[in-house]
Amino acid sequence: MAEVTVVGAGLAGLVAAINCARSGHKVRVLERFDHIGGDPYIRPAVDVTPMDPKRLGDFIGVRLEPPYVTPTEEFAIYVYGRRYLVPGSRMHLHSVERGSRSTSLDMYLYERAREVGVEFEMGVEMNSQKDFAELPPNTIVATGLEVEPFLALRRPYLEVYGFIGKTRYEGPPRIMGFFDYYTSYYNYCANANGVAFALAFDGRPVTESQRDEWDRQLREWEGMGFETWLPHEGVVATGKITSPCLFAGNKILAGTLAGMQDPVFLFGVQSSLVSGKIAALAVEDRERAWRLFHSFTSAYKYSWLYKRFFDAQPHFLRKRGLRLGFGAYQKYPSLLQPAIDIALKSLPGYGKY
Ligand SMILES: Cc1cc2nc3c(=O)[nH]c(=O)nc-3n(C[C@H](O)[C@H](O)[C@H](O)COP(=O)(O)OP(=O)(O)OC[C@H]3O[C@@H](n4cnc5c(N)ncnc54)[C@H](O)[C@@H]3O)c2cc1C
């Protein structure tokens, strides 16, 4: 039996901790906040991600079910003002509540971790190279999208900017995505469990007038009103074509810090869950874990290149291409479904359980 330290009590860290404890290790988790659920500035939030909850749940050894993970019933996408509707099930979309409420996936995983004897030290922040050097070998680092560990462990990242909106909202789980002139990424708004969450973001600072334009569209087209918008600056893990990386020196990386994030839509939920399991395996068998990690991220480089190509296109070409793609998908769903399924398989961590 080994003593395993996990830094970060988010999705990847908790799955890693649960699996290490089940293998008989003594596990302690260090978490920078004094609570589970991450930064209250951002949360509660609703993350939406393509997922196969049954197979993923079997792989990580945790049942993934409502209200923590719920099928997204409707996926509406606005391409420069034109609305397309796709049943969420076709894209295998699932809505995941994040944060400290009892209906969040974070709290659900925390409860499972407590059941198997994982110990938690709250309010402990690991940021500098010195902090990490002092941690024992085989420590699992799963600090998510916080920039300091990326810097300390020399992992590549990209900065993102934008605004966050949160409000109460009842209704079946939905997501609305917006491609438009106000962002070179996409904005999204999703709801689940009585909460709605909206994120306007881009690889460069988003102005208030860009945000206000989206706010107007949300109100007029979807009846979604957000009283306040909070400025948001953060990082994503898709800095380089070589971002996915399981080891940093004698440390094991997990979650987005390990580059487990899709470079196109920036989905990070299901790949973080997968990578928590792989990190736990790495404590016992580095070689096997590395092979699994490699297989789960083998298509990353193609998605990364596609994203660079997409980013280089001017708005008028994006508008044409996206309208053509979504229009055809709406009209001939079964014809294009194989292409969607192939695209889903290129997501880090997807579908190779
Ligand atoms: C605003 C926003 C919206 C998003 N929307 C989506 C979405 O719709 N779909 C999707 O798939 N993904 C989405 N993502 C990405 C997704 O949330 C992440 O990829 C996922 O949470 C990563 O899981 P993780 O385990 O790596 O990190 P997290 O779940 O973020 O957990 C990291 C944990 O480590 C702790 N921590 C951080 N730094 C330290 C430190 N220095 N010392 C100790 N503890 C530390 C944190 O407090 C936290 O508890 C979104 C991210 C953001 C920020």
Characterization of the model:
The protein has 353 residues and is an alpha/beta fold. It has a single domain (3-300), classed as 3-Layer(bba) Sandwich (FAD/NAD(P)-binding domain). It has eleven helices and 16 strands. It has helices at residues 11-22, 53-60, 105-115, 129-134, 147-152, 208-222, 269-284, 286-296, 300-311, 315-331, 333-345; strands at residues 3-7, 26-31, 45-50, 69-71, 74-79, 82-87, 93-98, 119-122, 140-141, 158-168, 174-179, 187-192, 195-202, 230-236, 247-248, 251-253. The chain has a seven-stranded mixed beta sheet with strand order 6-5-11-12-13-10-14, covered by helices on one side. A six-stranded mixed beta sheet has the order 8-2-1-9-16-15, with helices on one face. A hairpin with a 2-residue loop joins β15 (247-248) and β16. α10 packs across α11. It is globular. The mean pLDDT is 96. The structure holds flavin-adenine dinucleotide (FAD). Flavin-adenine dinucleotide is lined by residues 7-13, 30-33, 38, 42, 45, 47-49, 125-127, 142-146, 148-149, 199, 234, 255-256, 261, 267-269, 272.
In summary, what is this structure?
The chain is an alpha/beta fold and 353 residues long.
Keywords:
alpha/beta; FAD/NAD(P)-binding domain; seven-stranded mixed sheet; globular
